[in-house]
Amino acid sequence: MLRRSFLLLLALLVTTATSLRAQELQSKSISVVAPGQPGGTTDLIARAFIPELQRRLGRSIVVDNRPGAGGLIGVMTCVQAAPDGHTWVVANESMLALPNFVKTSFNPEKDLVPVAIVTRASHMLFSSSALPVRSVAELIAWGKANPGKLNVGVIGNSTQYLQSLRFMRMTGLQGQTIPFSGNPAIMQAMLAGSVDFALASGSAFFEQAKAGRVRPLAVASAQPHPSAPTAPTLRGAGLDFEAETWQGFFVPAATPAPLVARFGAEVVAAAKQPEVDAMLRNQGYFVDTASGDAMRSMVLQAIRTGTETAQQYGIKPQ
Predict the structure, then answer these.
(1) What CATH number has the domain spanning 124-219?
(2) Pick the CATH number of 28-120+245-312 from 2.60.40.10, 3.40.190.150, 3.30.450.20, 3.20.20.70
(3) pLDDT at position 15 over 80
(4) Mean pLDDT of the region 23-38
(5) Long-range pairs of 227-236 with CB within 8 A, sequence gap ≥ 24
(6) Quick one: pLDDT at residue 244?
């Protein structure tokens, strides 16, 4: 009788503790790590989603800005957090490519679980208006007639850099790759005439294209770009080449699958709300969501393509 009473008491204590733990987890706020300064891309994307996600999840959500090391500091903040759904990170394809450039214990395939991609944008091949070319064919012809004279703008330690190398190998172009901190810096260098062409994205490039200061030669996607509908695709120009940039939410590995699925569904639903869409478009981003197996497949392909390109060019972590 005493033993039975003890077992019943033990079961009651376990049930109570589990219930209290569940209540604690439900009431705890979610921290969304933005691997950049306030006002930067990851920060703006995180803040665009917070009001709607707070309403849908019934949880307080805060942004944790962790700039530095090309996003690695912010990513590692998430990787090292408890896998209980309380820490997310906004990451892009370049952050997942960092192990190709810097020595780190971070393994993007094993250490992060994709929740949802929220924005995607194809890279566009832009040339300086000072360069006497108006098409992909003319760029290739000019480059081959002037070997080694092209200056190519790239973002250091990024997939954009790897994609630029892949494009040059495919077309047989030779030139100097000049690293910059981001697309705005590349654009300024292109306007100054020190960069001849670049695979880039961002509303600022299209604004300059409309003004005739840079030329959109082709889009690196299967479909025309809405901001440059008359520019052909690289496939249409005869090149089997596509490249894009994206931003998405991730959580630490071992986060329970039901939580990941719930988060993914809520993020995708939030992205469809007019106010979220408007906030992102005002910052120059196009909403294009993916979650579940579709996102995992896309992320895995991006990681492996980047690794293969880095190996082909002898790029090793420093």
Answers:
(1) 3.40.190.10
(2) 3.40.190.150
(3) no
(4) 79
(5) 227/203, 228/124, 231/124, 232/136, 234/125, 234/136
(6) 85
